[in-house]
């Protein structure tokens, strides 16, 4: 399969794509999440996409929820990826040789405890972790290191001289598998992504949440978004976990009369961690 990802070869999006679709997965690299969505929608040779949606430390990637809602695409599944940042160099180099470290600003920030122990090293912000690794390899930079994922080191022939240098050791990013066409839920499906809008009446959202709980559904995510041109009116993205598909469907029916524009983006099996 050919899967659209945000970023370059060797990025965490590619690791997630391989974890979800298999090691032989080909990737279509995209410069932005908007381009990713566009290619999944319009490019015939792109079968699906993998898109980051939230991080256990940084929180939700809010623009991606809006992109997903407006795209008309379907959620087919999810995968949780542990984010491990590694310091990588040209073969033969040591930590003492390094004068600069290149990486995305977020990756540098995630590794600040380690980097502050080496004040002689200059930090250089770049647009992508994997691209930083590719730059070091292509230019054969002898005094420059990159911070990126393990796959980048493998693809570009770099040595990891300091593994897992991220400060927070429990750092996970959740990725959604998205496609043009929805798929029938698997028999063991136990999670759904849903959008809905409530009226502006007092207690309207509370009634919806009560009905969801009464149906035996666990609300694992609830994200609100303002509706443009409608003052103080919101729509919601909800991730719902359940044990019984029939009870889930009945739960949706019970909240249908309390919501507007209720839309199921996808019903799938809760993702594994890689």
Automatic annotation (TrEMBL):
<protein>
    <recommendedName>
        <fullName>prephenate dehydratase</fullName>
        <ecNumber>4.2.1.51</ecNumber>
    </recommendedName>
</protein>
<dbReference type="GO" id="GO:0005737">
    <property type="term" value="C:cytoplasm"/>
</dbReference>
<dbReference type="InterPro" id="IPR001086">
    <property type="entry name" value="Preph_deHydtase"/>
</dbReference>
<comment type="pathway">
    <text>Amino-acid biosynthesis; L-phenylalanine biosynthesis; phenylpyruvate from prephenate: step 1/1.</text>
</comment>
<dbReference type="InterPro" id="IPR002912">
    <property type="entry name" value="ACT_dom"/>
</dbReference>
<keyword id="KW-0584">Phenylalanine biosynthesis</keyword>
<keyword id="KW-0028">Amino-acid biosynthesis</keyword>
<dbReference type="InterPro" id="IPR045865">
    <property type="entry name" value="ACT-like_dom_sf"/>
</dbReference>
<feature type="domain" description="Prephenate dehydratase">
    <location>
        <begin position="2"/>
        <end position="180"/>
    </location>
</feature>
<dbReference type="Pfam" id="PF00800">
    <property type="entry name" value="PDT"/>
</dbReference>
<feature type="domain" description="ACT">
    <location>
        <begin position="193"/>
        <end position="269"/>
    </location>
</feature>
<keyword id="KW-0456">Lyase</keyword>
<dbReference type="GO" id="GO:0004664">
    <property type="term" value="F:prephenate dehydratase activity"/>
</dbReference>
<dbReference type="GO" id="GO:0009094">
    <property type="term" value="P:L-phenylalanine biosynthetic process"/>
</dbReference>
<keyword id="KW-0057">Aromatic amino acid biosynthesis</keyword>
């Amino acid at each position: 399969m050919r899967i659209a990802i945000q970023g370059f070869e060797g990025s965490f999006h590619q690791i997630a794509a391989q974890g979800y679709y298999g090691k032989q997965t080909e990737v279509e690299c995209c410069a932005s999440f908007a381009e990713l969505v566009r290619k999944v929608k319009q490019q015939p040779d792109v079968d699906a996409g993998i898109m980051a949606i939230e991080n256990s430390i940084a929180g939700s990637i809010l623009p991606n929820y809006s992109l997903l809602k407006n795209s008309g695409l379907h959620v087919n599944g999810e995968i949780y990826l542990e984010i491990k940042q590694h310091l990588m160099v040209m073969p033969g180099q040591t930590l003492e040789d390094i004068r600069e470290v290149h990486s995305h600003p977020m990756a540098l920030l995630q590794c600040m405890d380690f980097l502050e122990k080496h004040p002689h090293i200059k930090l250089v912000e770049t647009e992508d972790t994997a691209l930083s690794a590719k730059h070091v390899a292509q230019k054969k930079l002898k005094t420059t290191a990159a911070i990126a994922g393990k796959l980048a080191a493998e693809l570009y022939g770099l040595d990891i001289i300091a593994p897992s240098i991220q400060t927070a050791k429990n750092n996970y990013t959740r990725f959604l598998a998205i496609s043009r066409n929805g798929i029938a839920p698997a028999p063991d499906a136990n999670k759904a992504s849903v959008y809905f809008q409530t009226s502006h009446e007092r207690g309207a959202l509370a009634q919806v949440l009560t009905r969801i709980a009464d149906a035996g559904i666990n609300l694992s995510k609830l994200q609100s978004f303002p509706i443009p041109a409608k003052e103080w009116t919101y729509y919601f993205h909800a991730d719902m976990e359940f044990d019984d598909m029939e009870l889930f469907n009945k739960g949706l029916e019970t909240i249908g009369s309390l919501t507007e524009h209720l839309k199921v983006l996808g019903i799938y099996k809760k993702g594994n961690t890689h």
